[in-house]
Specification:
mainly beta, five-stranded mixed sheet, 2 helices
């Protein structure tokens, strides 16, 4: 018998046996030789701490029958901290062994070593040979390998009126090894323009560096001007995240909300009215608004309105209009209502009530008519479906939650009654595995033809992580006559991913989905067995299997994914099928403010089981620079089954193109904000050419008033026989008013007016000026005085607060800063300006020393006679400044990076000021430049 390659089985077996015997003989001989002289360290790994000494023994065993001579024991390199190792030669008789100490100290230079391996070369002679072997052990350094990201102070704030603002970000390598990291910054919520948004820093062991981040405000919420900046450090060596922090930033304003209520969300507390004109002639005036207010001590309310008035016809529409009342854990909404988690479309006009009880339990009931308009005369008001429903949510905050719901829908237009019940549960196991199950039952009944349908649905999802593997399984099935959103659908998506390394990932995915619904008959005509015209039929399905590989290299990301896919679509008039072999590729990168993303999918396909195959390609290229983006897509031939449907008899070789660009802008000190977009598309498949241009504008007239504008121009041209073309325009202009949320009952309004108290009596008198643009803090809440020196803190809960002014600018309170807030407060606050004390750090350089130093970030301390300590940070110009009241101070520096000629100095500050400059002279440590004379 011969295998397929033609090689006899017996020959192949003998060859394998020969190689096995040869390898065994070689390994045996090698192992026998190795056993004669064994050299190793007693401990393969040694745990070390900075500043401690440790000893590991070098063990040399002579297991031969001859005497050997140890000639040299030499370290592989000049290890820092190496205190002792044996240097003299000696002899070792047959059968003897010796333990030789190697002692080191884990000083700073030792901890900073790149490699943790300590290796020695040992040379010895026997009567016949001379050999050199190596022995090594590893030092397990106890070090913090994180990168710390922080600012000098917890509170960071910028003045939006200033032409340029910045914060200083400190990046610290807390480990001993040199690191190169990428710092990514993200604004939450979106609204900050940060430059640079990404920064690369190289850090020596234990080194700190300061990065200046310039900040501009694109979009500001004047009531709640807090931003979080998420800063993430990624090690470029292995692409692992090695540090992160959330930095707190406040945009200063003179009216601050302290306690944020539920109403403090985007798009609330405003009213806007505008005129809308379009080329169709249906011009109208539109009103939009939203506000929140408190009715009584325990009852608060929210109101929303949307209305159109067609002034030429005298008709109106009222929609998206509702009133919501909330008391403790109960909410009632009247007007336009919508809700989710019913597995059924629920929206219309009516009422909804919900209440929470326990830790995570909630009951909701609703009753509504399925009509988008609340009231109006423009559209004919017809009777819509009557829907009643209830929902119960349960579980805890972490590991388990779920809900059950019921809907009854009476539709007089289609003469159908529908009932649907749905239940969902979700479990979290060990914080790594999530299991979700769903089941539904439904019943439909025709009120005229008396036909009925029962249906059911079920689903089971799993998502989890096991080691380097992540698994996702999403599955659902609904019968054809199930009345829920998933009617007649089957969906199965199985995905397995493997994290090969920090920068490499592979995955495999299988998807099988189809939609094949079944409906009751139209109730306006009797059922006719031979006539199917009153049935609604469509069918769509997709089945695909694919794999993929993802790779990240510094700022570049790559994806390659082959896939096999079958698609089908059908209705009463036609059916199409497309079978394809596909290859998808994606490349993306971010280069500073530039972003690039390219995606391409090549397909080799055949349609409707025909014998001939065809090629197709779809590719998209996206480019972004700051607030500008440009996108283009090109398609050749059909890439989906829906491309096979066309109103025109198109040859298979067709092309579609589109280009789209957008730009978001801010100008005129951020008073004018807006966006512009334009695009064009050409379809050879559908024989048309479309173009569009639109824009949004908002100009801030005052802090609470804005003018708004919008325009849209579009054009259409058919390239088919009997071609037609057309255009459309729309524009609107309006005015918008922003409301300040009123202070809630139970909270209080605190107002301060700051003034320069020249005579130190605490009273605002003639000749004393108010202080505009002064920074004021009420605990951690920051605000800025207006032109009248006033600042308002709204919604301040009852309690004890500490008032602070911007002491770094030299302001000092003339009152007790601790304030009890149990009522509304309106208080005049006198300030006394402190005396400015400036200083600098100057380096004393040796001749021929050209190495630059960096003292940015070094802290200078000033200690008063009563023991109070003030701090200042050296800036990038090597300067620092204090604002101190009169008295005697000791100024000193506690930093061992450099040596200082006079690290402690004493100064006397008087009310007349301090005009001298404090100078700290420093020089590099352990640096001596020798000059050879000729």
């Amino acid at each position: 018998m011969k295998p397929q390659n033609g090689t006899p089985t017996s020959v192949r077996r003998r060859t394998i046996l020969f190689f096995v015997l040869f390898l065994l003989q070689f390994s045996f001989a090698f192992g026998q030789e190795k056993k004669d002289i064994e050299i190793h360290f007693e401990n393969n790994r040694v745990a070390v701490e900075k500043g401690s000494t440790f000893t590991n023994f070098l063990v040399i065993e002579n297991k031969s029958s001859e005497e050997i001579t140890i000639q040299n024991i030499i370290p592989q390199e000049k290890y820092p901290g190496l205190l002792f190792y044996p240097k003299n030669d000696f002899t070792l008789g047959a059968g003897q062994s010796k333990n030789l100490p190697v002692k080191l100290i884990a000083n700073l230079d030792f901890m900073k070593m790149i490699s943790n391996e300590i290796k020695f070369q040992i040379s010895y002679t026997t009567p016949t040979v001379t050999r050199t072997e190596s022995a090594s052990f590893f030092a397990d350094k106890e070090e913090n390998k994180n990168i710390a990201i922080y600012t000098a102070t917890y509170e960071n704030f910028i003045n939006p009126a200033a032409p340029e603002s910045s914060i200083m970000l400190i990046v610290e390598n807390q480990g001993y090894s040199k690191r190169t990291v990428k710092i990514d910054l993200q604004s939450i919520p979106d609204g900050l323009e940060m430059m640079p948004k990404q920064h690369t820093v190289s850090l020596e062991g234990l080194e700190k560096q300061t990065i200046e981040i310039k900040i501009a405000v694109r979009k500001q919420n004047t009531l709640f001007p807090e931003f979080n900046i998420n800063a993430t450090a990624t090690d470029l060596l292995n692409n692992e995240i090695v540090g992160s922090n959330t930095l707190y930033l406040v945009i200063l304003s003179n009216n601050r909300q302290v306690a944020r209520g539920n109403e403090g969300v985007s798009g609330t507390n405003f009213a806007e009215i505008f005129y809308n004109e379009n080329s169709s002639g249906f011009n109208f005036i539109q009103l939009r608004g939203n506000t929140a207010f408190r009715v009584t001590e325990d009852l608060k309310s929210r109101f929303n309105i949307g209305a159109d008035y067609y002034h030429e016809d005298g008709r109106y529409n009222l929609y998206d209009t509702w009133l919501e009342l909330e008391r403790k854990n109960t909410v009632l909404r009247l007007g336009n209502v919508n809700s989710n988690d019913y597995d059924y479309p629920v929206f219309g006009r009516g009422g909804k009530a919900s209440t929470k009880f326990g830790k995570n339990n909630q009951i909701e009931i609703l009753a509504l008519e399925n009509n988008y308009n609340l009231a109006g005369t423009y559209f004919q008001q017809i009777e819509g479906s009557t829907i009643v429903g209830a929902k119960y949510g349960f579980g805890n905050d972490k590991s388990f939650n779920g809900k059950v719901s019921y809907i009854f829908d009476h539709d007089p237009r289609f003469n159908v009654d529908t009932q649907l019940a749905n239940a969902v549960t979700s479990f979290l196991v060990n914080d790594k595995h999530t299991i979700r199950t769903e089941v539904g039952l439904s019943h439909e009944k025709g009120l005229v033809n008396r036909d009925e349908n029962e249906g059911a649905s079920m689903g089971a999802n799993y998502e989890g992580k096991i080691g380097k593997w992540d698994i996702q399984s999403i599955n659902s099935f609904a019968t054809k006559s199930y009345a829920g959103i998933k009617r007649g659908s089957f969906f199965s998506n199985q995905r397995i991913g493997l994290q090969l390394s920090a920068s490499q990932r592979a995955f495999m995915q299988y998807q099988n989905s189809q939609v094949d619904p079944e409906f009751l008959s139209f109730q306006n005509t009797p059922i006719q067995t031979a006539n199917t015209a009153n049935l609604r039929y469509y069918f769509n399905s997709t089945e695909a299997f694919g794999t993929g590989y993802q790779l990240s290299l510094k700022k570049w990301n790559f994806l390659l994914s082959p896939k096999v896919e079958r698609q089908k679509t059908a209705n009463f008039y036609s059916s199409q099928e497309l079978f394809s072999y596909r290859m998808e590729a994606n490349i993306s990168t971010t280069l500073g403010a530039h972003g690039l993303n390219w995606t391409a999918e090549y397909s080799y396909s055949k349609e409707n089981n025909k014998d001939d195959w065809f090629n197709s390609l779809k590719t998209t290229l996206s480019y972004r620079y700051k607030a500008f983006s440009l996108n283009g897509t090109a398609q050749w031939n059909a890439t989906t089954v829906f491309d096979l449907n066309s109103y025109y008899d198109v040859d298979r070789n067709f092309a579609n193109y589109n280009v789209y660009a957008s730009y978001n802008f801010q100008m005129l000190s951020n008073n004018l904000i807006g966006s512009l977009s334009a695009g064009t598309s050409y379809s050879e498949l559908y024989k048309n050419l479309n173009s569009n241009m639109s824009g949004n504008l908002e100009y801030k007239i005052s802090p609470s008033w804005s003018s708004t504008g919008y325009f849209n121009f579009s054009g259409y041209k058919s390239t088919a026989a009997y071609a037609s073309s057309g255009s459309y325009y729309q524009f609107r202009v309006g005015i918008k008013k922003y409301f300040t949320a009123a202070t809630a009952l139970g909270n209080h309004k605190v107002t301060f007016q700051l003034f320069d108290d020249k005579n130190f009596n605490g009273l605002l008198e003639t000749g004393e000026v108010v202080l505009a643009n002064e920074i004021v803090k009420l605990d951690n809440f920051v605000a800025l005085t207006d032109k009248n020196g006033k600042v308002v803190f709204q919604n301040v809960p009852e309690g004890i607060y500490t008032l602070k002014v911007n002491e770094s600018a030299g302001a000092r309170l003339m009152m007790d800063p601790v304030i009890m807030v149990d009522k509304n407060i309106n208080r005049k606050v006198g300030l006394v300006k402190n005396i400015r004390v400036s200083g600098k750090l100057t380096e004393i350089k040796q001749a021929y020393d050209v190495l630059e130093t960096d003292v940015t970030g070094i802290v200078v301390y000033a200690k008063s006679e009563d023991g109070a300590i003030y701090t200042a940070v050296v800036n990038q110009k090597n300067e620092f400044e204090f604002f101190l009241k009169d008295g005697k101070y000791d100024l000193y520096i506690e930093n061992d990076k450099y040596s200082y000629t006079q690290p402690n100095q004493t100064i006397q500050v008087t009310k007349e000021g301090y005009s001298e400059t404090v100078v700290f002279e420093y020089k590099k440590k352990d640096t001596t430049i020798k000059v050879k004379k000729f």
